[in-house]
Amino acid sequence: MKPKEGKRYNHRRMQAITPGLESRNVRNIDALATFDSIFSGTLAEIQKDVAAGLTSEQIVKKYAALAAARTASIALTSENEATALAASKDILDRSQGKAVERKIVKHAMNEAEEREIDALLESKLKEVNPGLVEDGDNGDEDAD
Question: What is the mean predicted confidence (pLDDT) over 103-109?
Answer without folding.
Answer: 80
